[in-house]
Amino acid sequence: MATTATGPNNAGALAVDKAVAEGEAGRILGMRIVLDPNITTITGSGTNQDIVYILRAANLIYHQSDQPWFEVFHETLSATLQVRLRIFGYSAFSPDARPEGLARITGTGLNATI
After folding, report:
1. What is the distance between the alpha carbons of residues 93 and 79, in angstroms, rounded to a whole number?
2. What is the C-alpha to C-alpha distance for residues 87 and 10, in angstroms, rounded to an integer?
3. Predicted confidence (pLDDT) at residue 95 exceeds the cutoff of 80
4. What is the mean pLDDT of residues 2-18?
5. Torsions phi, psi for 72 (to 5 deg)
6. In 13-35, which positions are buried (b, 16+ CB within 10 angstroms) versus exposed (e)?
7. How far from each other are the two terminal CA atoms of the chain, in whole angstroms?
């Protein structure tokens, strides 16, 4: 039995009465348009306004190690003839290094016309 205490993991999948668009939908002024059903479309006083996010992905800085490291520890569990294995890597994400690359557009100009 599923619990609803924490809400749905994929809210867009609950829209069974209509088709939900998702993925790339074209370009405007050279910028890709990506539709995502997880972004609400019922904001504003009339619950008919969309939210648009504009993102310059080059401003989001992400680093990761080239390959994972593997280690085997023979001594840790040697009394029971077992070994402990460890795999790890490093990653870092800095979304706020250049905050001007992310914008949120809302307002009455985004009223749904359908």
Report:
1. 41
2. 30
3. no
4. 56
5. -125, 125
6. eeeeeeeeeeeeeeeeeeeeeee
7. 37
Burial string for 69-98 (b: 16+ CB within 10 Å, else e) reads: eeeeeeeeeeeeeeeeeeeeeeeeeeeeee
d(CA 74, CA 83): 5
Which comes out higher in pLDDT, residue 65 or 78?
65
Token pair for 20:
């939900």
Q: How far is CA 58 from the centre of its chain?
A: 16
**Could you tell me the CA-to-CA distances from 34 to 9, 17, 57, 73 in Å, in that order?**
20, 22, 13, 46
Residue type, 18: K
Question: Tell me, what amino acid is at 32?
Answer: R
Inter-residue contact 62 to 92 (CB < 8 Å): yes
pLDDT tens, residue by residue, 34-56: 888 787 777 777 677 778 888 88
Higher pLDDT pick, 9 / 37: 37
